[in-house]
Design brief:
By secondary structure, this protein is an alpha+beta fold. The protein has a single domain, classed as Hypothetical protein (Archaeosine Trna-guanine Transglycosylase, Chain: A, domain 4, Roll). Helices cover 26% and strands 35% of the residues. A hairpin with a 5-residue loop joins strand 3 and strand 4. The chain is globular. The model has no long low-confidence stretch (mean pLDDT 91).
């Protein structure tokens, strides 16, 4: 059964890294309210403007940036400098450990998402989805 569902905006290269298995941790400056077993849906903003897949949360880690880099930096697809720039001024960083990954057989473009979810605007960072929103898109047979 689907627990909490989070929709994140992820740059194309990072979305492809997640979907191909090369990126196994998603980094965030603020902690989203997700935990093991929840699902994270991947929206790629410009240039694609599409919902492309999802992954199950295997774990969430919270660490100071230096410790987070040591534990998860190599799995983030970021150079150490980009990692440090991203977490500049933050006392605690968060890593969402990526479990099972589902690449949708058909991506949903922003136009379609607006039909399914009236008033939808892509998140700048992330937003939560309710069960009705997840069920309404109808492309998730592989998810519990």
């Amino acid at each position: 059964m689907l627990g909490r569902a989070l929709l994140i905006s992820v740059r194309l290269e990072h979305a492809e890294g997640i979907l191909s298995g090369g990126k196994t941790v998603e980094l965030r400056r603020t902690r989203p309210r997700v935990s093991r077993g929840d699902w994270v849906f991947i929206y790629v903003p410009t240039p694609r403007k599409e919902l492309v897949g999802a992954f199950e949360v295997a774990d969430v880690i919270a660490k100071g940036p230096s410790d987070l880099w040591r534990q998860a930096g190599s799995r983030s697809m970021l150079s150490e400098q980009r990692f440090r720039d991203y977490f500049a001024g933050v006392r605690t960083g968060y890593g969402i450990i990526i479990g099972k990954v589902v690449r949708f057989s058909r991506s949903l473009h922003l136009r379609e998402l607006k039909k399914y979810w009236p008033g939808f605007a892509p998140p700048q960072c992330y937003r939560y989805l309710n069960r009705a929103e997840v069920a309404s898109i109808g492309i998730l047979p592989a998810l519990p």
